[in-house]
Amino acid sequence: MRKGNLMEVRDDIKVLDATIRDGGLCNNFEFTDEFVTELYKANIKSGVDYMEFGYKASKNLFRESDFGKWKFCNEEDLRTIVGDNISDMKIAVMADVGRCDFKTDFLPKKESVIDMVRVACYIHQIPAAIEMIEYFHHLGYETTCNIMAISQAGSDQIQQALEMLCDSCVDVIYLVDSYGSLYPENACELTKIYIEAAEKAGKKVGFHAHNNQNLAFANTIETLSYGVSYLDTTIQGMGRGAGNCATELLLGFLRNPKYNLYSVLTFIEKYMLPLKEQGVVWGYDLQYMLTGQLNRHPREAMDFTAEKRKDYCEFYKALLDNF
């Protein structure tokens, strides 16, 4: 059953901007402090509820010198941008199962400017994700569990994962279309499954889209209409491969007067367009469409893009040969 209608304000909706985190996968997280500061200000003025600054990646697995600072989100780097964050917008970071040192790299919430930790995992990693979620909850953070590549998971696996998460202290369970392979119809069906489980346990559901088939926005508003509350976006859809649901599309769609477009449009003019002119690449293209249609990880399409290939037929045949 759909929740509300196109003219109503839904007070449960939370917009999360993931431009620095997902977009950082396009430029090795090498954003200038000016870029990040101005995005922070633009998000506040636009009414965005959460801003995800990047990953808390393990410095034992990844060398700091190989990446921009938002691969690691050190507390001092965050505070350089936000100070004590006296705004209403909350600060989020992502922690990948198996790729972070969560017991040593996180301060108690009362000592940190971070509000929310988003734990990302594949469905077979749910027990490890729950261990992290319980730890972060104990430290005082809001938590989410972002189950990646859900389009490749079986229905029994999904039900078991949801049961385990609903028994945990996680606040939000995310449906993540990592491969951009979902259509509104099956995004809707998955949403109903998530919502049914989450509502019984008093939890919220989020959605994170990828745009391989130009459906990130369509899938986002479809899942929204069936009760998803937390919606991920990025400015101009900047994100890994084909990118994500564009912030400007979603803010323009929502009827809540707290959201507005002017600051986002100004930021696009001053910062996003120059970024593209510098050669940073993201967004829909045929190679991403093909991996989306085949429900495949976009890594082969990303390699195709990096090599500046245009032989789409050969690429498609190679994908089919390895299907």
Outline the structure in words.
- The protein is α/β, with parallel strands linked by helices.
- The chain has helices spanning 19-27, 33-46, 75-82, 102-105, 126-139, 155-166, 184-200, 216-225, 247-253, 262-277, 286-293, 299-306, 312-321, and strands at residues 14-17, 50-55, 90-96, 116-121, 142-147, 172-176, 204-208, 230-233.
- An eight-stranded parallel barrel has the order 1-2-3-4-5-6-7-8, surrounded by five helices.
- Strand 3 (90-96), helix 4 (102-105) and strand 4 form a beta-alpha-beta unit.
- The model has no long low-confidence stretch (mean pLDDT 97).
Summarize this entry quickly:
The protein is an alpha/beta fold and 323 residues long. The chain is built from 13 helices and 8 strands.
**Percent of residues in beta strands:** 5-15%
Poorly predicted parts: none
Extended strand count? 8
State the end-to-end CA separation: 36 Å
C-alpha-based Rg, rounded = 19 Å
Order of helices and strands: EHHEHEHEHEHEHEHEHHHHH
Helix content: 40-55%
Mean pLDDT: 97
What is the 3D shape?
globular
Q: Give the structural class.
A: alpha/beta
- Compute the number of helices: 13
The description of the largest β-sheet is: 8 strands, parallel, barrel
What is the spatial order of strands in the main beta sheet? 1-2-3-4-5-6-7-8
Topology readout:
Blueprint lengths: L13 E4 L1 H9 L5 H14 L3 E6 L19 H8 L7 E7 L5 H4 L10 E6 L4 H14 L2 E6 L7 H12 L5 E5 L7 H17 L3 E5 L7 H10 L4 E4 L13 H7 L8 H16 L8 H8 L5 H8 L5 H10 L2
Parallel strand pairs: 1-2, 1-8, 2-3, 3-4, 4-5, 5-6, 6-7, 7-8
Helix pairs in contact: 2-10, 6-7, 7-8, 11-12, 11-13
